[in-house]
Amino acid sequence: MEAAVGYRPRVGLREEREKSVLGRHPWIFSGAISRVDGSPGMGETVEVISSKGETLGKGAFSPSSQIRVRLWSSDPECVIDRQFFEQRIKEAIRLRADLPSLSSSTNAFRLINGESDRLPGLIVDRYADFLVCQFLSAGPEYFRDIIVSLLSELYPCSGIYERSDADVREKEGLDPRKGVLFGEDPPELLEITEGPCRFLVDIKTGQKTGFFLDQRENRQRLAAYCDGAQVLNCFSYSGAFAARALKAGASHVLNLDDSASALELCAKNMELNGIPQERWENLQGNAFKVLRQFREQERRFDIIVLDPPRFVDAKSHLMRAARGYKDINLLAFGLLRPGGYLFTFSCSGLLATDLFGKIVSDAALDTKRHARIVERLFQAPDHPVGLNFPEGAYLKGLVLCVM
Ligand code: SAH
User: Fold this and answer.
1) Over the stretch 273-305, which tens digit does the pLDDT of each residue have?
2) pLDDT reported for residue 5
3) Does the annotation mark 78 as catalytic?
4) What is the topology classification, in CATH, of domain 82-183?
5) For the chain, which ranges sit under pLDDT 50?
6) 235 CA to middle of ligand 1, Å?
7) Which of 270, 313, 320, 356 is the most exposed place for a label (fewest CB within 10 A)?
8) CATH number given to 10-73
9) Cβ of 208: how many Cβ atoms within 10 Å?
10) How far apart are CA 122 and CA 144, in angstroms?
């Protein structure tokens, strides 16, 4: 009977690899698949079938990715159509509306967080009146027109801009793409507010979708420690940690980044927040080298923020990344005054929280500094983590009091 209804591509699982799908983990790796019936194209919806022949859910097929299927739903009856996306997008919007004090404190946040909002591969960030989308895998790419049309209806905005120029698309066999998807072309620099600060965001060419929204709450935590402090903001990007620290009474912030364009924007952000020139300085350079120079010069700071880029993008790089994290933390420990604070982060999803803690602890040991963890930090709640998707918890941080 079913065959007569039409073409229904299916993916069969190996029995020993079914556990993760039964646990609703959204990723099905190529090695877990025993057979593919039909010849599903890029992003097409497939039924996922157990070794016993039961339907376990529906997912998006990605022929050239190691992650061959990303599950849209574990409901065997679910139809992946406009209505499906409408419901999931509404759920995501609803969560952000519910989050305490999010919309009253900022007009920039993550509206859709991929797998954790049960929309694998889809990222949508809101910046004031604009939305910025990333279609990072075959599924959302296949449904892009429906998704854009729904976003414009469900979340009225001046325009929707695409920033699907992230490296991960390559693994999916998708070309990088960017440009206007709906409405107006956004300005080169868009102004947002975050707590007491205003920031200019370059959504067209800035890093990620233009701003590190995931660090919002951690910037607020930093502010609480800053009164009168001399701060080194290492890997500063556009100065978001700096502006929060200075507004909260830090006496001086040194922003360090190797990107000239990031520091140019950082300078604009310092001005936009009315921070006098004598309270901040920008330094362009490689943090690993500059911190060594500072060590030789015996420079000291009250607070150091270390927010390096993702050092690990493949498991095979883990050891090298671990050395990088240890090195930079070791240097930072050496530059803190006794009683100073280190805000140290890792945004590498592949580096487990425990291992990160161990690396930082080894770094302290090597510098013979005693450190106490006073806070453990995490990504902001508009970047929720699906309980079935631990990989979603990528950002971790420690606030350490260093003697
Ligand atoms: N803390 C920032 C985000 C940091 S992103 C915020 O809250 O907005 C990481 C930054 O590190 C990027 O701006 C990148 O240009 C910079 N970077 C990468 N490698 C670097 C290096 N070796 N030395 C200095 N900066 C580096």
Assistant:
1) 999 999 999 999 999 999 999 999 999 999 999
2) 57
3) no
4) Transcription Regulator spoIIAA (3.30.750)
5) 1-4
6) 3
7) 320
8) 2.30.130.10
9) 16
10) 10
